[in-house]
């Protein structure tokens, strides 16, 4: 008995130590499309035509990612101005039609496929004018801008959204995509109000927060459930923008400081955007980055940028404007050649996807039971 007990204890330890990544997959970007205006005209593309100007996911592509590639995480973008039309303002009043379309995508991923989702308001902490994102729109909570939505409205929005999804264990709340050019104090105030509203609504799932300057600012946020992860975006080109073909920045070197900070402050992180171009020059940068996240227990998840039904032959990252396609299965490059789904995702990223991921239980910074989904990986 003693013998089998210690075997069991050893097995438990091994699975714990190996499974630092619980959630891994891709960002689904397209729900935020269709609002860009060359003349920065507010209201362009709003509310937009679903399936024409924007869409959330292609269910066939989700099937490929889950059934063949064994991905268990999707970060699904949407626009606050579509969920909460400017006529009624940011808050608890949703456009029910738009919500139903979003919920259909979220429920397909979580309930039909059994994967996890990060809800992603892709708004840069701005609301009311996405016509030239990321620069346009009033900063949420800017008290000297009479047109700005307030911190209280942001909290009402999150309380409502979290309340609607509180029964879905496979949901993660990504409070805001890339707040920038605003005070860190205001980001914190908005996030704190949102997390208070989320917990008040009875939602217990994991949430993630992104800090414009450094992760350290987020240390002051109080979540009564401590179910919190820091959201990090990390591109591997020279200026970290994810726009260039050439890889130039080492993920492990760039992340070293933040990893030390996470460790010292007992925080975990999800890298919800990262990427690099196709071709051998970037291959080691990508594998170094993914292996680094796998071997440092501070990282619990990652999502590559980006798949999504509306990219067409455009590249979501790292192409210097070339049309090399996106990470969307079934997409092609502009010249009809293989897209980044084949040249980057299948070739570089998917082979490094952890074999065992979490497939059940509430989304948690502590992870959950991990297991291998489906059969053997086709490419390894
Ligand atoms: C709500 O969303 C639907 C679907 O996109 C759209 O047809 C409708 O115009 C929207 N309503 C408002 C007030 O934006
Ligand atoms: C807040 O609003 C004021 C007035 O419109 C503007 O001058 C300021 O730049 C805004 N602050 C931010 C962070 O956008
Ligand atoms: C959250 O973390 C704080 C600080 O470490 C601790 O005092 C508190 O008991 C934790 N709460 C829960 C619910 O784990
Ligand atoms: C890295 O970036 C610098 C500055 O943009 C450039 O001069 C250099 O050629 C780049 N190196 C590689 C390997 O792409
Ligand atoms: C990247 O993919 C595109 C589209 O298939 C292709 O034209 C290009 O040659 C590839 N680049 C490299 C360096 O392999
Ligand atoms: C969804 O993906 C499938 C498979 O790649 C493709 O045939 C179909 O046209 C896509 N649907 C939309 C609406 O993009």
From TrEMBL:
- Which SUPFAM superfamilies does UniProt cross-reference here? (Trans)glycosidases
GO biological process terms on file: glucan catabolic process
Annotated signal peptide: 1-19
InterPro entries assigned to the protein according to its UniProt record, in alphabetical order: GH, Glyco_hydro_5, Glyco_hydro_5_CS
- Where's the Glycoside hydrolase family domain? 44-308
Q: Which domain of life is it from?
A: Eukaryota
- E.C. number: 3.2.1.4
UniProtKB keywords: Glycosidase, Hydrolase, Signal
| Reaction equation(s) it catalyzes | Endohydrolysis of (1->4)-beta-D-glucosidic linkages in cellulose, lichenin and cereal beta-D-glucans
Enzyme class, one word? hydrolase
Q: Where are the transmembrane segments?
A: none
Single GO MF descriptor: cellulase activity
UniProt lists the family membership as follows: Belongs to the glycosyl hydrolase 5 (cellulase A) family.
This protein is called: cellulase
């Amino acid at each position: 008995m003693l013998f089998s007990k210690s075997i069991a204890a050893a097995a438990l330890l091994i699975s714990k130590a190996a499974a630092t990544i619980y959630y891994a997959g891709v960002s689904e970007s397209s729900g935020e499309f269709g609002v860009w205006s060359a003349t920065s005209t507010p209201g362009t593309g709003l509310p937009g035509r679903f399936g024409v100007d924007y869409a959330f996911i292609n269910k066939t592509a989700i099937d490929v990612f889950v059934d063949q590639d064994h991905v268990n995480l999707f970060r699904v973008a949407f626009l606050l101005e579509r969920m909460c039309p400017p006529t009624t303002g940011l808050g608890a009043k949703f456009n029910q039609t738009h919500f139903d379309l979003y919920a259909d995508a979220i429920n397909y991923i979580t309930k039909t496929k059994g994967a996890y989702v990060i809800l992603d308001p892709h708004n840069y902490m701005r609301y009311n004018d996405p016509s030239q994102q990321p620069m346009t729109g009033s900063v949420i909570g800017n008290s000297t801008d009479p047109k700005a939505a307030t911190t209280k409205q942001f909290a009402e929005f999150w309380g409502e959204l979290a309340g609607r999804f509180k029964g879905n264990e496979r949901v993660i709340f990504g409070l805001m995509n890339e707040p920038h050019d605003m005070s860190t104090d205001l980001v914190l105030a908005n996030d704190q109000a949102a997390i208070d509203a989320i917990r008040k609504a009875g939602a217990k799932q994991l949430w993630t927060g992104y800090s414009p300057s450094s992760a350290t600012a987020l240390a002051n946020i109080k979540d009564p459930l401590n179910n919190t992860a820091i959201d990090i975006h990390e591109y591997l080109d020279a200026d970290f923008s994810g726009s260039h073909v050439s890889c130039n920045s080492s993920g492990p070197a760039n992340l070293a400081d933040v990893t030390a900070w996470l460790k010292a402050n007992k925080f975990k992180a999800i890298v919800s955007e990262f990427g690099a171009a196709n071709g051998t020059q970037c291959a080691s940068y990508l594998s170094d980055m993914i292996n680094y996240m796998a071997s440092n227990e501070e990282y619990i998840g990652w999502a590559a940028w980006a798949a999504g039904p509306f990219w067409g032959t455009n590249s979501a990252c790292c192409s210097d404007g070339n049309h090399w396609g996106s990470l969307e299965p079934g997409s092609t490059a502009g010249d009809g050649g293989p897209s980044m789904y084949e040249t980057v995702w299948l070739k570089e990223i998917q082979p490094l996807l952890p074999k065992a991921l979490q497939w059940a239980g509430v989304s948690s910074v502590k992870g959950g039971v991990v297991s291998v989904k489906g059969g053997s990986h086709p490419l390894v």
